[in-house]
Design goal:
The protein is mainly beta. The protein has helices at about 20-35, 85-95, and strands at about 5, 10-15, 50-55, 60-65, 65-70, 105-110, 115-120, 130-135, 140-145, 155, 160-165, 175-180, 190-200. The protein has a seven-stranded antiparallel sheet, with helices on one face. The protein has a four-stranded antiparallel sheet with strand order 7-12-9-10, with no helix packed on it. The longest helix is centred in the N-terminal third of the chain and has 17 residues, at about 20-35.
Length: about 200
């Protein structure tokens, strides 16, 4: 494992997953999505998000008119599937903590999808890192500050890249400006998958 790039406290492991591990992860995620299908999340103000979403783990992250939250079941009522082993292995390798994650949020970005600048702050405790895995098409990841606004830095996250958001980066604003649709052949129909593993306090 090479030392990560450090950008504003974000630890970026370029090329962390080799091709075979990426293929296996996609196969595992197809099974996750078979049990807990991707849904179209809506913000509390009623705006449809451009990413499609599902989760694995004890808890999943959802948003709808009722707000942003973690809950133990998919919007259709079923329990979330377990987090696949290959995904947990990444957490173990890079998180630096001894407990496992409660949630693996799965975001799918189609050609026009993006994610506005935000903080991950629904977890109840920020003592644990968030670990992100990118698969498929490249996405332009923007890293900002804990306070809103100010200067930002951007980096293309490519398939197999892993980012750890811990310490000073744990509550930093971040987002995805655009994806480079068709830049990867991992997903036959194109698009980007981003996984984020999180610990959620009771
Ligand atoms: C997120 O912040 O939930 C997603 C980040 C990414 O897609 O790289
Ligand atoms: Mn986030």
């Amino acid at each position: 494992m090479n030392a990560p790039l450090m950008i504003r406290g974000f630890q970026v492991y370029k090329g962390f997953l080799e091709a075979r591990a990426q293929d296996q992860m996609v196969a595992d995620l197809r099974e996750v999505a078979r049990v807990a299908p991707f849904f179209d999340p809506v913000t509390p103000s009623g705006k449809k998000m451009s990413v499609r979403m599902t989760s694995a783990g004890r808890l999943g992250w959802v948003t709808d008119r009722g707000g942003y939250r973690y809950q133990a079941h998919h919007p259709d009522g079923m329990a979330w599937p377990e987090i696949p082993k290959g995904i947990l292995d990444v957490w173990e390798a890079v998180s630096g903590v001894s407990r496992g994650p409660d949630c693996c949020l799965v975001n799918f970005y189609g050609e026009e999808a993006r994610m506005g600048m935000h903080q991950d702050k629904d977890e109840g405790s920020f003592d644990w890192p968030v670990v992100s895995i990118s698969l498929g098409d490249a996405g332009l990841f923007r890293m900002g500050n804990v306070a809103r606004g100010g200067k930002t830095e951007s980096l293309w996250l490519e398939s197999g890249d892993v980012v750890v958001m811990g310490g000073e980066a744990r509550l930093a604003h971040h987002g995805v400006d655009r994806i480079r649709f068709g830049s990867s052949r991992l997903l036959p129909k194109g698009g980007r998958i981003n996984l984020t593993m999180r610990v959620v306090a009771e």
